[in-house]
Amino acid sequence: MSELITIERHILEQQRRFPSATGEFSQLLADVTFAAKLVRAEVIRAGLVDVLGSAGIINTQGEEQKKLDQSANEKFIKAIGHHGRFAVMASEENEDIITPPDSSGKYVLLFDPLDGSSNIDANATVGSIFSIYRRKSTSGAGTVQDCLQKGSEQVAAGYVIFGSSVMLVYTTGQGVHGFTYDPTIGEFLLSHENIQTPKRGKIYSMNEGYYRYFFDGIKKYIKYLQQEDKASGRPYSARYIGSLVADFHRNLLYGGVFIYPRTKKAPEGKLRLLYEANPLAFICEQAGGRATDGYTRIMDIVPEKLHQRIPLFIGSEEDVRIAEEFEQGLRELEHDRELIPNMLAEVARAEKTLVK
Ligand code: P6P
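Above: the input record for the complex with 6-O-phosphono-alpha-D-fructofuranose. Below: its predicted structure, written as tokens.
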């Protein structure tokens, strides 16, 4: 029987190998793990809220039943904000920064408490995403500027995926490690050590319903992926759940590319730089992948505002690079190879008729 390694033990072992990580830093990840367990408890009963609520089993304290993402947001804030380790927090659900009661901590927490929550009613996979930075300000409570750091300044990032099983995937810059929740013992156990994403995959994830709003480069890229070319594994399979953590996690393990590009209706794209793109970019690069906005490395972009949106090209390195070439107009669509023999046969037939 292989050794059972809890996430707490894994973090401590990582800390021993990297003296720069203080005990306080390890406690941060334990705090996030605790928040993840609280959110899980909500997510797995989401379908019963009305039933339990109407039976008076939930909301015994008389609180109105909140939307799940608001409830998850409160769980993160309450579970983490009271330990004095964070100088400031920011959430995709909150317009402004969140100042913990004790804001003397050295760290900054940015998070999306429940991404893809619109899929909850259909019992589709959703996820929580988090990013941890060191504060830049030197005294008092943390500031907005502490939250507007480049993604390359992250000291940790991760996500919890609430799917057929619940997994927590994180990095502290020493590789990407996945832990699967065992409800019989209430622990996250190491199940995917040092995840490495394939250099090229056969899956692409994009909402092609917006095809008419895509710019030409992405339209050509989609056609490129749909062409037949066995050497490059084309045509790719289209897989799009509409829940970023689920699409990202599948492509991380199997290989492939997720693109939420700029469009004529959304020139900045839809996804958030702070709460979605940066943490997943940190994980993706640590797993050997690539993450850009089609032009610039995500983690090099200096955020200007808390809810800044950014186009996102993320996944297997070779796939992202090819997508960038199309996005930047550096690559043209080759003719379908099977088209050429058909064209030549058509010419031969035409010549025969002409010769008679
Ligand atoms: P669209 C969910 O609302 C989300 O923020 C991400 O989880 C997901 O990847 C994206 O939006 C889906 O957006 O426009 O394709 O429905």
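Notes for the reader.
The chain has a mean pLDDT of 90.
Residues 7-192 form a domain with the Fructose-1,6-Bisphosphatase; Chain A, domain 1 fold (CATH 3.30.540.10).
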